[in-house]
Please model this.
Amino acid sequence: MPREEILNRIQKYVHPFRITKGKGFRLKDFDPDDTRGLKLDKREATELLQRGTDWLAEEQDILYAQDRWSLLLVFQAMDAAGKDGTIKHVMSGVNPQGCQVFSFKQPSAEELAHDFMWRYSKCFPERGRIGIFNRSYYEEVLVVRVHDEILRRQKLPKPLVSKRIWDERLDDIAQFEDYLTRQGVTILKFFLNVSREEQEKRFMERLDKPEKHWKFSASDIHERRFWGDYMHAFEEAIRATATKHAPWYVVPADNKWFTRLVVAAAIVEAVEELDLTYPKINAEKKKELAAARAELTGKT
Ligand code: ATP
Ligand code: MG
Model:
């Protein structure tokens, strides 16, 4: 199938979930169980995903060779929404050398002694690379917004902590993303939208299966109580920071196979838009290559 045709097909699974304008965005318009009527068995889904990851691997090779653009993929979600699995599957074909994955947990004392962007800004991808943030600076307007005591630990000067702090932070994030975009960083943000019911099912599975016990954490169960607060925080974040150059994808996450497909397709589409080509070589380089060939074949 020609690339053009594949692109046309995958758009159907990307565009409905892509938010490029925050105004009027409502989370409740997005169904976590949506699969756009697509019904695939496991084999078919795996095959389709494989195509996407192969494609991504080819594009990454050019991205790296060009050494100009970079890609920042941000993953945010409630626990058990499938961040880890999605990252693992979608990036499975790409060359690890061109890829950098960072997982952000609770900040250290050193990190708390700096402005909130400090620890993230050290991890932005180099040119030619794909950077993956498993959690990100969005935690600063999600978990920190939901739990007051975390904000207090950030040691901000008192006059700077007002009712407007979340709007101000969102503003700062949006501006930071503008800046990165102008530096050649293409930003895609994924919210894996899992339902509260599906999360419960996945937690139960972790309890039932010994090989999944390590994944279980009592604090995850505790966070479920704040579900509504988190959804509100996500909605506000998406409203304030969804733009054409740094879109959010509200990816249905109740069916893992579909989540992975949408994420892979969104990345392929975005990279395709960069219209990447291998760097062209100049006359001098051509001469160098010809001389190398001559030397290797002993014709000098
Ligand atoms: P997994 O559970 O799949 O291993 P995870 O991303 O949930 O991955 P955990 O160690 O379970 O990793 O959780 C990390 C915790 O750190 C999350 O609860 C998250 O909200 C929290 N966290 C991340 N960034 C911040 C931050 N800036 N301030 C406070 N807490 C944060
Ligand atoms: Mg966790």
